Structure to design on (134 residues):
């Protein structure tokens, strides 16, 4: 299986309703396609982890890349995995990453991970263990 994390810049006009719509479509399609993952949004940037069969992940990323509700999609981690981080989640959503605004903006701009970013990503990935079994 493949696991990809990307960051992107949200359309400035995006509303809560848009986030809700994204999650409805993502959860429906991901269940169908055997994909799992997590999404965070801090008011400016998205960060998403998408995992599952490699072909399905890349096909889905192509669809997401073309979505006008964000732009500048930049992959920050791509790796082959044996075990999913978000096995129970078609798409976990956590709006509680507002404090990471600077990290996400910097990642979206230059896609280089420093030590702070690594910690943030660890916290992000740990979400899958913090909310088990839902
Ligand atoms: C930040 C972001 C994350 C998204 N994540 C997913 C996703 O995980 N899975 C998915 O199918 N669509 C996702 N979408 C939505 C797709 O871009 C697209 O609107 C949707 O797949 C279309 O579904 P439909 O053809 O069933 O209407 C995401 C969009 C954005 C802006």
């Amino acid at each position: 299986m493949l696991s990809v994390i990307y960051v992107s810049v949200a359309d400035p006009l995006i509303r809560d309703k848009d986030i809700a719509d994204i999650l409805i479509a993502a959860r429906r399609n991901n269940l169908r396609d055997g994909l799992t993952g997590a999404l965070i949004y801090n008011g400016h940037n998205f960060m998403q982890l998408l995992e599952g069969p490699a072909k399905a992940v890349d096909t889905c990323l192509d669809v997401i890349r073309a979505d006008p509700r964000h732009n500048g999609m930049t992959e920050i981690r791509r790796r082959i995995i044996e075990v999913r981080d978000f096995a129970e989640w078609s798409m976990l959503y956590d709006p509680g990453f507002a404090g990471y605004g600077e990290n996400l903006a910097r990642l979206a701009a230059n896609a280089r991970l420093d030590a702070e970013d690594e910690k943030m990503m660890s916290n992000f990935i740990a979400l899958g263990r913090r909310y088990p079994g839902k």
In short: The chain has one domain: 2-130. The chain has four helices and five strands. The domain at 2-130 is CATH 3.30.70.100 (Alpha-Beta Plaits). The mean pLDDT is 91.
